[in-house]
């Protein structure tokens, strides 16, 4: 910001006479017309609140300041060239007549000034202009800045500006990404022992080059030859492949070198992947609305008061009306949930897929993975000691919000957010705008139905009353959607929050029906599933899935959770996943930077990194369904791309790697704009390359960029560097899956346990089936599991039951000791106490699947 040191310098600046000819007509200011309805990338200092009103930026300035520079509105990253002429012009007016200053200079210490001029504003809108020659050089959007100094007034005032322009210079701004890149591109974090280890060399050489792997002491530990690949269209690089998979010694600080070029350092270890599982999930606690974010869980840097809970200056979320033009006649209490992205909005269609991915990650782990990774106490959240798996606790924060968005008629409101775009930065508890509900929509209603049905299934053994509440809401929502099958979100409802309109909802109907059928077994829902055009993964392609294309979510549930569909149909769904996974692998084999992403139609789009991860989920499920190592390896290739093996030598995950994203587009992780605010916390995912260039920052910086290089680490670059709950949920799903695999050979379990408990006041009755899914008979068996709650077995049958603390074992009786392949035995018990169902079972020491 323009500090007092800058102002003193500016006061002595000599200005050329008005009318001096411009060297060129290159516009340097971004979003000077405010046509988008957003103020970004304009910032304001303390005591100033920016609003877009009538197509102008209006700054409400608190009175009582001493100096003009005590109240500021400005823009950073403005390029200047020393010795070149510039004209600064704008329209402005004020509620009360006031003199302001327009200034240009340096945005960081020592805050050198270039130019400043005072202008007397009146209540009538007028045009102002002055021309100057730059004495400083900030090419390519470095540390240059323009600002309006609005302070030094005893009383409050509002100053509005429009058509802000800075033209001049001889060099067109933009064309480069300011992050330094390497010629040897690696995963900046780690390669997992036992898995393939590949890197990319940027080189125009047509013959193999010698690579050397060095340890942290600089000693060579492996060497080999690159494989030339030639031109890579997506990155614009000429590349070679480096495969150093033969080296597998764990360690830190390794580097790869080719000639004089060396990579960033990296580890050979599974530990960072396992840590990422929890950091990516921690993102959601940070994004919670309606609760104080406590330092004991996130550290003092990220702690903050609760946002939008009717504590001034918040208007609050406890009594939110519909938009004035809707006149719905009621208000809703919609406190809670997750802030969706970089703003303070909460969106049902984004929150729906995000909550589903967290819940599905848990449900998948209970059936074919390791649910102990999500047990109570694994996440740093307030609910970590309540006896419920922490991943379910975090998901519930959003699920409860989705329930609150249900209107009296069963439909769900599409979103809730501020009446206008909030300034950047604005912490949630300091947001003083009124909140408004957008209209209900079929898509939002089906998101609610799907997620509530899924959650009901998972809470059935934890909290029967809550499970029943969820299922009732899901049924009501689905019925309402059937009665309103084409109530689409308004594409023009984009002031204060994104529109998230969706013109096709047959996919949401299929997803919701699949979840309801899997949870209830009802024939009506089954008919809707099997009659859908999306049935049996008919629409699954390399384009994958996202918030607006959700049919594959229903396929995933139908493939993972036993449901009574014909075995051939379930097999067809699984086959579709392996078929698409094979297509990804075939395409990745031709890429310079192996990535499961289809850019053939739309290029790289907004949130491309989430597309990479959702496609990695398809690869992961193909591995679950087949056990084939090639799919597992494809998942890790996707993570390598996100963590640095890309043409920008950048990790798109904050806190991971020597050159990781810092300046995500976010209202309160806004250190770039305000040094008192933090950068993005570890585990936060940047949206990634977007060749559409849909914000002013990238339009200035990245014109002509190759698709994979259309990204910059700038808080104002919202179309490439925003965060979102439905992007981090994809990262959480994939990193959790990868942490589970982490180099250990994966085999399909040769046993399956089905556990069903009927609960009543103070106790339960459990029926348990043990199935031999292997190829050899069991001659004697021992079942083991642990209760997560206070359950104590009081009576058992068809087995010898024993319990020590929470640990339970059951061994065979003489008459049921042998279980042939494909056969089952049935046992059971009565117990006192309460708690969730056991999450993991072993038979004869081997981990079993759950049915």
From TrEMBL:
Pfam families for the chain: CBM_2, CBM_4_9, CelD_N, Glyco_hydro_9
Q: Which PROSITE patterns match?
A: CBM2, GH9_3
Q: Which residues form the signal peptide?
A: 1-23
What is catalysed by this protein? Endohydrolysis of (1->4)-beta-D-glucosidic linkages in cellulose, lichenin and cereal beta-D-glucans
As recorded in UniProt, its EC number(s) are 3.2.1.4
Domain CBM2 positions? 744-851
Q: Which GO terms describe its biological process?
A: cellulose catabolic process
Instruction: Please indicate if the UniProt record lists Hydrolase as a keyword.
Output: yes
Could you say which protein family the record assigns here? Belongs to the glycosyl hydrolase 9 (cellulase E) family.
Q: What is this protein called?
A: Endoglucanase
Instruction: Kindly state which keywords UniProt assigns to this record, in alphabetical order.
Output: Carbohydrate metabolism, Cellulose degradation, Glycosidase, Hydrolase, Polysaccharide degradation, Signal
GO terms assigned for molecular function: cellulase activity; polysaccharide binding
Which sites are catalytic?
713, 722
Q: Check the record and name the SUPFAM superfamilies matching this protein.
A: Carbohydrate-binding domain, E set domains, Galactose-binding domain-like, Six-hairpin glycosidases
User: Is this entry keyworded Translocase?
Assistant: no
Alphabetized SMART domains for the sequence = CBD_II
Q: Which organism is it from?
A: Lentzea aerocolonigenes (Lechevalieria aerocolonigenes)
The record's listing under CDD domains reads: E_set_Cellulase_N
């Amino acid at each position: 910001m323009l500090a007092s040191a800058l102002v003193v310098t500016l006061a002595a600046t000599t200005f050329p006479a008005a009318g001096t000819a411009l060297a060129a007509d290159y516009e340097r200011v971004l979003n000077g017309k405010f046509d988008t309805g957003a103020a970004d990338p304009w910032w304001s200092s303390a005591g100033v609140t920016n609003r877009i009103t009538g197509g102008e930026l209006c700054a409400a300035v608190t009175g009582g300041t001493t100096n003009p520079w005590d109240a500021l509105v400005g823009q950073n990253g403005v390029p200047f060239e020393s010795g070149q002429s510039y004209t600064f012009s704008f329209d402005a007016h004020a509620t009360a007549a006031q003199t302001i200053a327009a200034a240009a200079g340096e945005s960081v210490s020592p805050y050198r000034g270039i130019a400043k001029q005072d202008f007397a504003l009146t209540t009538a809108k007028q045009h102002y202009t002055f021309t100057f020659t730059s004495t400083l050089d900030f090419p390519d959007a470095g540390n240059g800045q323009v600002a309006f100094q609005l302070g030094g007034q005893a009383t409050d005032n509002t100053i509005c500006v429009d058509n802000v322009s800075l033209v001049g210079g001889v060099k067109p701004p933009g064309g480069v990404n300011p992050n330094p890149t390497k010629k040897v591109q690696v995963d900046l974090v780690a390669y997992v022992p036992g898995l393939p280890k590949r890197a990319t060399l940027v080189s125009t050489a047509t013959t193999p080059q010698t690579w050397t792997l060095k340890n942290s002491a600089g000693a060579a530990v492996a060497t080999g030859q690159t494989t030339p690949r030639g031109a890579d269209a997506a990155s614009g690089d000429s590349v070679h492949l480096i495969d150093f998979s033969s080296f597998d010694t764990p360690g830190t600080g390794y580097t790869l070198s080719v000639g004089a070029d060396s990579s960033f350092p990296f580890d050979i270890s599974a530990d960072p992947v396992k840590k990422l599982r929890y950091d990516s999930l921690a993102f959601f606690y940070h994004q919670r609305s309606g609760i104080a974010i406590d330092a004991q869980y996130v550290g003092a840097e990220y702690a903050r008061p609760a946002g939008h809970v009717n504590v001034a200056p918040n208007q609050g979320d406890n009594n939110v009306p519909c938009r004035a033009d809707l006149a719905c006649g009621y208000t809703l209490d919609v406190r809670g949930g997750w802030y969706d992205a970089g703003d303070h909005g909460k969106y049902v269609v984004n929150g729906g897929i995000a909550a589903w991915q967290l819940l599905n990650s848990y449900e998948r782990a209970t059936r074919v993975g390791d649910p102990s990774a999500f047990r109570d106490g694994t996440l740093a959240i307030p609910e970590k000691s309540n006896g419920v798996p922490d991943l379910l606790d975090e998901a519930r924060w959003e699920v409860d919000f989705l329930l609150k968005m249900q209107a009296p008629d069963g439909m769900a409101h599409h979103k809730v957010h501020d009446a206008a775009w909030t300034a950047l930065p604005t912490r949630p508890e300091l947001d003083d705008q009124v909140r408004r509900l957008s209209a209900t929509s079929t898509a939002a209603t089906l998101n609610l139905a799907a997620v509530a049905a899924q959650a009901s299934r998972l809470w059935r053994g934890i909290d029967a009353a809550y499970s029943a509440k969820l299922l009732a809401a899901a049924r009501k929502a689905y019925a309402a959607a059937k009665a309103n099958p084409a109530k689409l979100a308004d594409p023009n409802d984009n002031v204060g929050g994104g529109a998230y309109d969706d013109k096709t909802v047959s996919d949401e109907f299929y997803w919701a029906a699949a979840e309801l059928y899997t949870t209830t077994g009802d024939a009506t829902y089954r008919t809707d599933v099997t009659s859908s055009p999306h049935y049996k993964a008919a629409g699954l392609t390399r384009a994958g899935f996202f918030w607006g294309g959700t049919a594959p979510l229903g396929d995933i549930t139908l493939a993972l959770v036993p449901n009574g569909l014909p075995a051939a149909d379930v097999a067809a769904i699984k086959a579709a996943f392996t078929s698409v996974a094979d297509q990804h692998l075939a395409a990745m084999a031709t890429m310079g930077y192996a990535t499961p992403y289809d850019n053939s139609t739309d290029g790289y789009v907004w949130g491309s990194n989430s597309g990479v991860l959702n496609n990695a989920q398809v690869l992961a499920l193909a591995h679950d369904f087949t056990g084939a190592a090639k799919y597992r390896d494809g998942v890790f290739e996707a993570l390598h791309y996100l963590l640095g093996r890309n043409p920008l030598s950048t990790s798109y995950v904050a806190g991971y790697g020597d050159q990781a994203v810092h300046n995500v587009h976010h209202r309160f992780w806004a250190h770039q704009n305000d040094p008192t605010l933090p950068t993005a916390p570890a585990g936060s995912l940047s949206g990634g390359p977007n060749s559409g260039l849909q914000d002013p920052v990238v339009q200035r910086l990245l014109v002509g960029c190759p698709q994979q290089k259309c990204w910059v680490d700038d808080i104002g670059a919202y179309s490439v560097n925003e965060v979102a709950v439905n992007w981090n949920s994809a990262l959480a799903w994939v990193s959790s899956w990868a942490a589970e695999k982490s180099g250990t050979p994966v085999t399909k379990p040769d046993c399956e346990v089905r556990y069903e408990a009927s609960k009543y006041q103070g106790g339960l009755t459990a029926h348990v089936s043990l199935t031999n899914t292997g190829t050899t008979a069991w001659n004697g068996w021992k079942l083991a599991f642990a209760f997560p709650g206070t359950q104590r077995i009081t009576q058992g049958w068809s087995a010898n039951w024993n319990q020590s603390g929470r640990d339970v074992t059951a061994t065979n009786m003489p008459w049921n000791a042998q279980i042939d392949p494909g056969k089952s035995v049935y046992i059971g018990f009565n117990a006192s106490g309460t708690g969730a169902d056991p999450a993991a079972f072993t038979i004869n020491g081997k981990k079993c699947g759950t049915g």
